[in-house]
Amino acid sequence: MTFSFLIYKLILVLTVFLVTLFVAMYSTYAERKVAAFLQDRIGPNRAGPFGILQPLADGIKMFMKEEVIPGASNKSLFILGPSLVLLTACMTGAVIPWGAPLIINGTVYPLQIADVNIGILYLFGVISIGVYGIMIGGWASNNKYSLLGAIRASSQMISYEVAMGLSIIALVMTTGTLSLGQIVEQQQGWHWNILVQPLGFFIFFICAFAETNRAPFDLPECETELVGGYHTEYSSMKLGFFLFAEYINMFISSAVIATFYFGGYNMPLIGRFIQNPNHLAILGVLFLFVKILFFIFVFMWVRWTLPRFRYDQLMNLGWKILIPLSIINILITGALMMRKEIIQLFFN
Amino acid sequence: MITSYLFYFLSFLAIMCALMVVFSRNPVHSVLYLVLTFFTIAGHYVLLNAQFLAAVHIIVYAGAIMVLFLFVIMLLNLNKETEPNKSNWLKAIAAIVSGLLLVVLVGSLKGAESVVVTNAFNPNIGLIENLGITLFSDFLLPFEITSILLLVAMVGAVMLGKRSVK
Prior knowledge:
- The complex is a heterodimer.
- Chain A is an all-alpha fold.
- Chain A is built from 14 helices and two strands.
- In chain A, about 70% of the residues lie in helices and about 0% in strands.
- Helix content of chain B is about 75%, strand content about 0%.
- At the A-B interface, helix 4 and helix 5 of A face helix 2 and helix 3 of B.
C-alpha cells in the first residue's frame, strides 16, 4: 500500500470512469446510426462531419432544458432516483479486467481496479441494488404511469436475476473461481467459455437484455401503454441520467459477456506473432474493446429488429423457460464434470 | 489504525440509520434507511475480512428482501390519511415490551463480556475457499438440511401461488 500504488489506482479508476462515459456517449450516436441503417435512413448528420458531434449537442440540450420537479412529488427521493441509477451503472466497471497486467521496470501494473475473490458476487450485488434507483424514481414522481413502470422494471429485473444467477453458477462450476481476473486467465487462446457453456451463455445473454431494460424487454418504458414508464415525470438532465444509465449498463453488460464467455482480453494465435508481454497486454485491451463494441452492436441490432414482448410473455419466458433451462444446464454441467465417477458407478 | 476509525464511523452510521428507520414518518424512508443499515453492517463484515458474507448480505437482504418490502409499501400507498388509529394503551404496551427486550439484550451483552475466547480468531475464515471447505466438511449435514428447508419453502410458495389446487 504505497503512495504511488494509490495514485496508480486513482488514475485507473478515473480512466475506466471516463472511458465508460465516453463509450456510453457514443453509443447513443451509434444507436441512432444503427437504427437509421436498419430502417434505410441516414440518421443524424448535421452536427459535425457525419454527425459525430451529435452526442455533445444532445448533452448540451439536456443540460439547458427547464428542470421541472412535480409539486406533488417527494423531492428528495425524486432527485435520489436518477442519481442512484447512474451510480450503480458506473460501479460495476471496478471488477472487470480490462487487460493483462503491464510490467514496467519490474513493477506489475494490473489493468483491473480490484481483483477481489468475490468478483461475481460483487457484480450481482451491484445489479441487485440497481433496482432501487428505478423504483425510488418511479414512486417519488407520484404518477400512476411512473409507478406502474417502476413496478414492471423491478419485477422484471428481479425475475431475470434468478435465471442470470443460475446460468452463472454453471460457469462457476467449470471455472472453479469467483474472481473475474482468474476467469479471464483460464481462457487463454481458444479455451473460451462459450465452447464449454453455450447454453449458459445463451441464458445469460437474454437476461442481460432484460436487466438493461432494452428491447425486446423494454416493457417498463412502453410508450403505448405507460406514456414513458418510470421516467414520465422527469425532465432535463435527470431524464438524461436515466437514459444515459441504460447505455452505460449496455457497455458494462457487453464487457461482462466478453469477459465471462468470450475470453476477455485473450485472442487466439496472437502469442505467435508478438512476444513482448507489454505489447500483448495493450493489444489485449484493444481486443476486449472490439468484442465489447460487437456486443453493443448486437444489443442495438436486436432492439431495432424484434418487436416488444407482452408482459405475460415476458414473465413466462423468465420463470417457465429460462429458469428450468438454467437448472438443466447446471445438471448437465455437473454430470459432465463427474462423468468418470458416474461411469464407474454404473459399469463396475 | 484506519480500521478502528472505519469501525467507529460505520457503527455511528449504522446506529443513526437504525434510529432513522424507527423515527422517520414516511414508511418508504424507513425502508430506505433499513437498506442503508444493511450496507453499514456489510461494511463491518468487510472489516472482519468476511467478504463473502458481506456480498451475500447485500444480495439477499438489500437486493431481494428489502426490494419486496419496498414493493409492498409502495403499492399500499401509506400516508397520514390512511394511518390506522393507534390507541394509547397499545402504545404503552409496545413501549413496555420493547423496553423489556432492551433489558434482555443489554443483560445478555453484559454476560458476554466474561466469556473467554478459547480458539484464536482466524482472519482467513471468511474467505470463500475456506468457507466452502468448512461448509462441505464440518457442517455438511446442517448445510444439506438447510437446502431441503429452502426446497420445501419453494414448493410451498408455488402451491400457494397456484389459483386452484386440483
